[in-house]
Amino acid sequence: MAVKFGTSGLRGLSTELAGSVSALYATAFARFLLGEGLAAPGGPVVVAQDFRPSSPEIVATVMAALKRAGLTPIDCGPIPTPALALYGGKIGAAGIMVTGSHIPADRNGIKFYRPGEEITKRDEAAITTLADTLSSDTTANLVEAGSGENHQQAATELFLARNMAVLPDGALKGLRIGIYQHSTVARDMMVKVFEHYGATVFPLGRSEQFIPVDTEAVSDDTIRLMAEWTDELSLDAVVSTDGDGDRPLVADEHGRPLRGDFLGLIATRFLGAKAVATPVTSNSGLEAIGGFNVMRTRVGSPFVIAAMEEALAAGEAGVIGFEANGGLMLGSNFTIGSSTLKALPTRDSFLPALAVLGTAAKAGQSLSELATAYSLPIALSDRLENFAVERSVALMVHLRASADNLSGFVAPIGMIKAVSDIDGLRITLSDDSVIHFRPSGNAPEMRCYVEAPDQRAAEALLAKGLAALNDWKPAD
């Protein structure tokens, strides 16, 4: 797996990313910042990390490279990605987050930030070009261990203050909330935030070994854990995040995960947003809810952010974005009570979790009752891991080559009514159910998304889709 930019930053095997590659890309990023006027010589760059074993080494290499390139690294330690972006925006600093998010520990990644916001796809291309140019430069590839002044407490306090102003005081009083801590950098902050609102909090499942938690394709083991906890402790919810704390995981009182796009919908209504950017993989029932404009994008936060920026440029107000993984992005400021929640155009896990729990508590509903009230199509997703990139590329080329190829592949699943090629292949079947095949942009995985009228039909459709993917082999 070669190091490359995917749907969320630079990704690769830990063994490929550690060492000279991380030095090279940090140097390229520094050159980019200085060349674009996004940093002045000697200016600060905030750096943070997740808890996977390779992250400290990569962070040390990155900070040394930044210093050699004429910038000042600021060490923010292990904090959530949105906390890093928020702090960078406050002090006017670009940022680097060393994280592989939800992918396994043998892989890692680097996310790059302009001051307070994610870089764009155009920025990614510019950084890649600079890295290619510097690839034979000995200094740019030099591996040294660097350090920076520690600002972890300041960044943590700023993020906590933001999230402690989202709901009224005592808004979650009487609720019993489990925090699945595993190895997420958000684990201690989440306990503080939910206790602040009066909930009785149960820290659960803390691990010193890195556990990859994918909030878009929650594992059976994780679902079983949450079901056991809700039953044993009479919990109203279980809340967690992925490794770097930018994607939420919220389970109802039965331990059943709520879809990330449902969390985004509730956050949309909670904030009173008027324009929503979301990928084609998010629930197709969003448009039918009414009250806000929906802009569909390709998968990946850079595409969602680009759509938010287009909406703002067109004069739209109340602009947000969210993904099917639950990560919520604020394109504009929002007023909540007497507080202003400032724009934060990067994925955040705290706000959507607070929005859904606050909404349910105010209505006197359980989370399952709140979800049922919206009557969205049942949407499920899963993935085939260790699905070689070459194999997924060959499959998509085959399916796009002709209508006969596509209909033949889908024949055991159903008849094709319509096809969308925005990102992967999203197929509407003759009964109006939906199946969507898409290679992961971050890992050697093939993802399958489905929508159907009820749970049983959705589960059956997902099983058929995964089986079709698993059985397919390239022609000799």
Describe this structure in words.
By secondary structure, this protein is of the alpha/beta class. Helix content is 39%, strand content 23%. The protein has helices at 14-17, 20-36, 55-68, 81-91, 121-134, 152-163, 187-196, 220-233, 260-271, 286-289, 301-313, 350-363, 367-374, 389-401, 403-410, 455-471; strands at 4-5, 10-13, 44-49, 72-75, 94-98, 107-114, 117-118, 149-150, 176-180, 200-204, 237-241, 248-251, 275-279, 293-297, 319-322, 328-330, 334-336, 339-341, 344-348, 378-384, 416-420, 425-429, 434-439, 446-452. The strands form 5 sheets. Strands 1, 2, 3, 4, 5, 6, 7 and 8 form an 8-stranded mixed beta sheet that branches. Strands 14-13-15-16-19 form a 5-stranded mixed beta sheet, with helices on both faces. Strands 20-24-23-22-21 form a 5-stranded antiparallel beta sheet. Helix 2 (20-36) crosses helix 5 (121-134). The chain is globular, with a radius of gyration of 22 Å. The relative contact order is 0.10.
Please give the structural blueprint.
Elements: E1 4-5, E2 10-13, H1 14-17, H2 20-36, E3 44-49, H3 55-68, E4 72-75, H4 81-91, E5 94-98, E6 107-114, E7 117-118, H5 121-134, E8 149-150, H6 152-163, E9 176-180, H7 187-196, E10 200-204, H8 220-233, E11 237-241, E12 248-251, H9 260-271, E13 275-279, H10 286-289, E14 293-297, H11 301-313, E15 319-322, E16 328-330, E17 334-336, E18 339-341, E19 344-348, H12 350-363, H13 367-374, E20 378-384, H14 389-401, H15 403-410, E21 416-420, E22 425-429, E23 434-439, E24 446-452, H16 455-471
Parallel strand pairs: 3-4, 3-5, 4-8, 9-10, 9-11, 13-14, 13-15
Antiparallel strand pairs: 1-2, 2-6, 5-6, 6-7, 11-12, 15-16, 16-19, 17-18, 20-24, 21-22, 22-23, 23-24
